Recover the amino acids of this structure.
């Protein structure tokens, strides 16, 4: 199979896809699909994101990256990225931040740096589908809650919380509900103190 034919057939998988999905579309083995994809990437026709993960073009929305990078686990865009998306902070994050039910991990891809953070399963909630690409994004309340929840972590990534602009329709009750679900007493107290400083409880 020539590369042009392969590229044209792969279009149905855009914006991002897995090697095994490409193999099915091309009706070839996974090993041969990987070879074809590598050749296409060398020609800058498609983008290699991580092992077994690809983007059909470099114009793909970077906010879609978390979901494809952690597949088959789930991820939703949150933290600074979602806060900026919802107009709650002014500074544009140079990293795409997301919450996952998988492992905490950093990915450096040709389309941007992606920082994935694990949260307790009972708090893996508070996200909706946004945009034409149906990406999962934290609602404003959860984006702020996730940031406060991860502030005590050793990485110190979220200790630099800039001035927050709380939306008029911000549902304070949601933050209170999630706060009650934190089983670790010390973590719950830290999050509660953060909420008090921001006057959201």
């Amino acid at each position: 199979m020539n590369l042009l034919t392969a590229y044209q057939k792969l279009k149905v998988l855009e914006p991002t896809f897995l090697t095994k999905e490409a193999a099915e579309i091309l009706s070839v083995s996974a090993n041969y699909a990987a070879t074809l994809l590598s050749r296409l990437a060398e020609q800058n026709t498609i983008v290699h994101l991580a092992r077994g993960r690809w983007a059909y073009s470099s114009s793909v929305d970077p906010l879609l990256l978390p979901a494809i990078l952690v597949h088959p686990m789930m991820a939703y865009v949150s933290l600074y990225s979602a806060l900026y998306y919802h107009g709650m902070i002014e500074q544009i994050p140079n990293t795409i931040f997301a919450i996952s039910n998988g492992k905490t991990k950093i990915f450096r891809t040709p389309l941007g740096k992606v920082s994935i953070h694990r949260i307790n399963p009972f708090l893996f909630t508070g996200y909706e589908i946004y945009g034409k690409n149906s990406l999962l994004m934290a609602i404003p309340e959860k984006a702020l809650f996730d940031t406060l929840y991860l502030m005590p972590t050793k990485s110190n990534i979220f200790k630099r919380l800039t001035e927050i602009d709380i939306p008029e329709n911000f549902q304070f009750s949601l933050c209170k509900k999630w706060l009650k679900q934190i089983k670790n007493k010390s973590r719950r107290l830290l999050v509660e103190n953060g909420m008090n400083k921001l006057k959201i409880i």
User: Anything to note?
Assistant: Residues 3-55 form a domain with the Arc Repressor Mutant, subunit A fold (CATH 1.10.10.10). The chain has a mean pLDDT of 91. The chain has two domains: 3-55, 62-198. The first strand starts at residue 16 and ends at 18.
